[in-house]
Amino acid sequence: VKVCIRVNLGGRKYKDKQEKVWYADKGYVTGSWGCLNLPETDILTTLDVISNTANMELFQSIRMGENIIYRFDVVNGTYEVRILFAEIYWETSAAEQQNVYIQGKKVLKNFNIFDEVGHDCALEKSMRTKVEQGYLEIKFVGYSLPMHSGARACAIKIKSI
């Protein structure tokens, strides 16, 4: 069984330039997928032009918070996880940093979007992971002070390999 789930975090359903559908963000439902701690998070949007992408709308909204957890109930196997980022708030290097965990393993440490690509610029990170317990979990942990809102992402795509 091939699995491919695309989610527009903090955004609405979207069809990209390759005619692929990205689902609107939602809270977690058993047997499906979603944000486990939706009420503890916020959405930030912009109408700014986002560079480095043909799919600008995917990068114009972010799910943000101190901790953000997404769970996908999927069949066991190997998956490619692609996370889309853009710094749509800060216009200078700031203390907004995060660690990103997939299946409990830290895959991005002290990650600062602005330091990598600046303001209003698309950035994608891809990693592979194994699912052995019937679900794939992605956790974003922000540790900026004093706001604790450093965790943020624009979209997630998971695909079985």
Your description of this structure?
This protein is mainly beta. The protein has a single domain, classed as Sandwich (Jelly Rolls). The protein contains 1 helix and 14 strands, in the order E-E-E-E-E-E-E-E-E-E-H-E-E-E-E. The strands form 3 sheets. It has a 6-stranded mixed β-sheet. Strands 4-7-12-9-10 form a 5-stranded antiparallel β-sheet, with no helix packed on it. It has a 3-stranded antiparallel β-sheet with strand order 5-6-13, with no helix packed on it. A hairpin with a 5-residue loop joins strand 2 and strand 3. The longest helix has 5 residues. The protein starts with a strand and ends with a strand.
Overall mean confidence score, pLDDT? 93
Count of beta strands: 14
C-alpha geometry: globular
Total number of helices: 1
Q: What low-confidence regions span 5 or more consecutive residues with pLDDT below 50? A: none
**What strand order characterises the main sheet?**
2-3-1-14-8-11
Distance between the termini: 10 Å
**CATH topology type:** Jelly Rolls
Biggest sheet features: 6 strands, mixed
The CATH top-level class label: Mainly Beta
Helix amount:
under 10%
Which architecture name does CATH use?
Sandwich
Which structural class is indicated by helix and strand composition? Answer: mainly beta
| CATH superfamily (homologous) name | Galactose-binding lectin
**Succession of helices and strands:** EEEEEEEEEEHEEEE
Residue fraction in strands: over 45%
